[in-house]
Amino acid sequence: MRTLFRALFLHCLLTLPAMAAGQMVASNPWIREAPPGVSMWAGFVSLKNTSEKPVALVRASSPAFHMVEMHRSVVENGVARMREQERIVIPAGQTVALKPGGYHLMLMHARQPIRAGVSVPITLSFDNGQSLRLTFPVKRGQ
To answer: Rounded to two decimals, what is the model's pTM?
Structure first.
């Protein structure tokens, strides 16, 4: 319980400056647990742009993974594929959800065991100079 309280308190402290500045706010970050032996995971989060100009997510990084890329799932000729994205634009005053079947973070080659119940730090960097340091809990299913 104490760990949960600390995590929630830290999350509030990290997102408060973004809210006050009227820029990017993140909510509901999570990572889908992968089957044993898999070296890639998918991360999801909702990004709200509270500014009056479009803002783009241009980079994601984590000390828990060797590589983090931004991807989008698409269906071409009935076949689902992933396409790496250089940027994900969040229009002014809108929310873009990184979610299963759409935009997501591709987390590759973990430096530590990744399983349900652990949390992973990920930093999101935007083209307006803002960065959000978030904690992504790993969840089973969903």
So the answer is: 0.81
